[in-house]
TrEMBL record:
Domain ABC transmembrane type-1: 73-338
Transmembrane segments: 27-48, 89-108, 180-209, 284-303, 309-329
Name of the protein this chain belongs to: Antibiotic ABC transporter ATP-binding protein
Subcellular location: Cell membrane
Protein species of origin: Flavobacterium faecale
UniProt GO MF annotations: ABC-type oligopeptide transporter activity; ATP binding; ATP hydrolysis activity
Signal peptide: none
Keyword set, alphabetical order: ATP-binding, Membrane, Nucleotide-binding, Transmembrane, Transmembrane helix
Listed GO CC annotations: plasma membrane
Record-linked Pfam families: ABC_membrane (PF00664), ABC_tran (PF00005)
Chief location of this protein within or outside the cell: membrane
Database matches in Gene3D superfamilies: ABC transporter type 1, transmembrane domain, P-loop containing nucleotide triphosphate hydrolases
Residue ranges of every copy of the ABC transporter domain listed in the record: 372-605
Amino acid sequence: MDKSLTKLFPYLKPYKHNIIWNVTYNILYALFATISMLTLLPVLDVLFGKTKTILSKPIYTGIGNIKQFGTDYLYYQISTLTQGSSIQVALLFVVLMVITTFLLKNLFNYLASYHIMHLKNGVLKDLKKSMYDKIIDLPISYYSEKRKGDIMARMLGDVNEVQNSFFSILELVVKEPLTILFTLVTMFIISTKLTLFVLVFMPISGYIISKVAKNLRAQSLEAQQESGFLISILDETLGGLKVIKSYNSEPNFKNRFDGSVMRLLNLSNSIGTKNNLATPLSEFLGVTTIAILLFYGGNLVLIDKTLDGSAFIVYLTLAFNILTPAKAISKASYAVKNGLAAAERVFEVLEVENEIVSKENATIKTTFESEISIQNINFKYEDEAVLKDFSLSVKKGQTVALVGQSGSGKSTIANLLTRFYDVNDGTITIDGINIKDMNLQSLRGLMGLVTQDSILFNDTIKANIALGKLDASDEEITAALKIANALEFVNELPQGIHTNIGDSGNKLSGGQKQRLSIARAVLKNPPIMILDEATSALDTESEKFVQVALENMMQNRTSIVIAHRLSTIQKADVIIVMQKGKIVEQGSHEQLIALNGTYNKLVTMQSFES
């Protein structure tokens, strides 16, 4: 059994009653699909005046005379009901019998479809939920290696493909095969010779169809990967439109998109050709079988006289009855291959092991008492070491600033403290507890993070600020905005704090967005504040206001400030000067200036710049 299929089993469990009912109704459908065809036999006999009159109830003597018994019993019922009446009554009776069997057949088909619909939609919902939960739980490091578009394609395209294609398997193993089985049994009862003749052609048809379906799964997988690449290009285009236009790079991006679209077109055409070939090919092979059957069966009726004309017509309708499920099986087998390829890509994400999780019985910590201690840590993102044997101690209430050139490892400290990444060697402790032993949610609950890129969501100002405290009142939101020096511009907006700020907050300026990010951290009111280049996006005037606000906020609070502009951190208790992952100097602003070393050089350079 395919691995992807077994992985789907847990998702089917909650809907097992739907599967049971679907299978039950499919069996009844298959049974009545055959019976409905058989009811045409008495209609034809009545029309051709071949109805036998049997007034004594026939006796069943065993499987050997089942055909004779079935025919005699039907004519016994017709004879009993129509005794002394005209032939019209007999015709009405057999016509009503046809209507009833066809009604039941279609009713069971509807009920089977009803249950498979609930199964498909339920599993789709659960798969999407599992995918989203996984996407949100996976560490930041996972997304530094993956394309966002590919993840989106798996979440939206592949999960839907599993729903659309995969559940064809239920019809593949129950409905259509049973219809064929019941029909074949009935055909054997009518004429063993003729049915054995038909069966010679079936394996030939199956072999031809399987040859056409070869490579379909591999091509489906390739098409789904290309689809992910296409969404990635679209996502990057929308995110970087200003850069693309300002560098006149539209032709380059159009060529990338066109190339991907063409590859997808060729793959889709190839898959579509094979899919489209399934129905006409199986129908042609079926009709060829029927045509040979007409010739051979015609001989049995006209020359050998071993088969009745009415029975042969019913036999032909039964043979045609096999064509529809045979076509459905060939189509479903193609669909299942697409579904298997899609399921493979979905489970590839669902099975990624998340290494950054809370330990079992992890410590839940809600307060910060004494110090953050970073001891002899080493860290690298890929091959190159970013931090080498790095140690730092931050006492409660201290403001510690990290400065240095780009790539010196400043922002990495923020990533490690919040456990977006884990250290390779060494330990980070808060009040003597290793952060790896702490509950992840409670660790992050102790910290407020304001990043260089102000990350905002397409929602109202209130919803964006209340992210860390969902039950915050309007008064609390307003107080946080006031501290972040954002209240003035928010009050000028049409709906104040209830104004929607657009995708990524793009209705606002860079400085306004950053002040909202600061307000969000203020409202959360954590004991430890991490400011990663928090004022870098602000204009000089806003920076001065926000700097005062940040200083107010940092009172009675432990703060780690990662700064590029040195003017913003002169009041810090300790300034750590970093170079290539190591501490080269540390002390207060005055002490470091007096040292006349790296820090003094950086201050002098920035003084000239400004």
